[in-house]
Amino acid sequence: MQRGSVRYGGRPIKWLGDGVMFYFRDPGTGVRAALEMVDELAAGEVLVSQAVADASQENGIIFRDIGPAELKGVSGTMHLLRANLA
């Protein structure tokens, strides 16, 4: 999984038990790497904020609105979209 993120210029910045947080300079390549990582797993999904979807210039990625969601450690709700390879 980590190899896929490095291929797109990502680097791990925080390990979270059974997860990891990666930093990508470009949001589009970050979303693409996340989609490929999730594709390697049996189940999982990539959710992004509207700001990330708007900033993504990567071809072949589509975003589907899933609406507001409450996230652990974040006050209020955040509007989320599901990213998928086209």
Sum this structure up briefly.
With 86 residues, the protein is α+β, with helices and mostly antiparallel strands.
Write the layout of secondary structure elements.
Elements: H1 2-7, E1 11-16, E2 19-23, H2 27-40, E3 46-49, H3 50-55, E4 61-70, E5 77-85
Antiparallel strand pairs: 1-2, 3-5, 4-5
For the structure shown, list the relevant keywords.
Alpha-Beta Plaits, single chain, 86 residues, alpha+beta, globular, three-stranded antiparallel beta sheet, 5 strands
Overview of this structure, please?
This protein has 86 residues and is of the alpha+beta class. Helix content is 30%, strand content 40%. It has a three-stranded antiparallel sheet with strand order 3-5-4. Strands 1-2 form a two-stranded antiparallel sheet. The chain has a single domain, classed as 2-Layer Sandwich (Alpha-Beta Plaits). The two termini are 21 Å apart.
